[in-house]
Amino acid sequence: MADRSSHRAAPVHTHPADVPLLTALAALADPVRLQLVRELAGAAEWSRGCGSFDVPVGKAALSHHFAVLRAAGLVEQRDQGPKRLNRLRREEFDACFPGLLDLVLREEH
Amino acid sequence: MADRSSHRAAPVHTHPADVPLLTALAALADPVRLQLVRELAGAAEWSRGCGSFDVPVGKAALSHHFAVLRAAGLVEQRDQGPKRLNRLRREEFDACFPGLLDLVLREEH
Fold it and tell me: Would you say A80 and A47 are in contact if contact means Cβ atoms under 8 Å apart?
């Protein structure tokens, strides 16, 4: 039985260990991506589909932002039926960039 | 006696306490600025003039990079005769963005 997700290419991931510091910083230096990361940090893993975020950008831009987050080792995605589900790669990103997510997830700024 | 530095406007600074997280991240997410910050971290305060950095950009671009670093609360500058001297605002930046400079100054990435 064909999965509806089979119509699109599986998302490409980069492990945070293979991510340059500049790439990690640039991925987080964007208000939309910061919001996505913060919302994912507050949600259970694999509980949020890409369409579930209330961000002020269109579908194509959102898809680009998720690609940047994957390339920075921040987000892992998997397709489940029509949904693309997300998890924040918190533990492995922390191991490579200690303190960076903690800083970003503080509420002060 | 007129100081030669009086011919140009004094540099404008922003205290790190007034810097949004996105501004701090964006300031560091650039290879030239990362090099400037790393070299300043390894030098005594006020020991490095703006012209003393071996970075692959012209004078105007370098001036822009320093303006970005000042606006992010990362660098303080003062004019001394013909030289504009720099110091990394390490302590006050650390207090506002704990761990970020430590991460950036690690050598691994």
Answer: no
CATH class of A16-104: mainly alpha
Pairs across A and B, CB distance < 8 A: 49
Q: Do A20 and B109 touch (CB under 8 A)?
A: yes
**Edge-to-edge order in the sheet of strand A75-80:** A48-49, A83-88, A75-80
Q: What is the pLDDT of residues B4-49, one digit of tens each?
A: 545 678 999 999 999 999 999 999 999 999 999 999 999 999 999 9
Cα B37 to Cα A36, A98, B31, B87, B95: the distances in Å are 29, 19, 10, 9, 17
Q: Which of B63, B59, B79, B60 is nearest to B71 (CA)?
A: B63
Q: Tell me if A86 sits within 8 A of A46, measured CB to CB.
A: yes
Chain A's closest residue to B17, CA to CA, is: A109
Q: Residue type at B80? A: Q
Best residue of A103, A104, A107, A108 to probe chain B, by most B CBs closer than 10 Å: A103
Q: How far is C-alpha B88 from the geometric centre of its chain's CA atoms?
A: 6
For chain A, which ranges sit under pLDDT 70?
Answer: 1-7, 107-109
CA dist B91 and B83 (Å) reads 24
CB burial of residue A40 (10 Å; 0-12, 13-18, 19+): buried
Residue B108 pLDDT greater than 60, yes or no: no
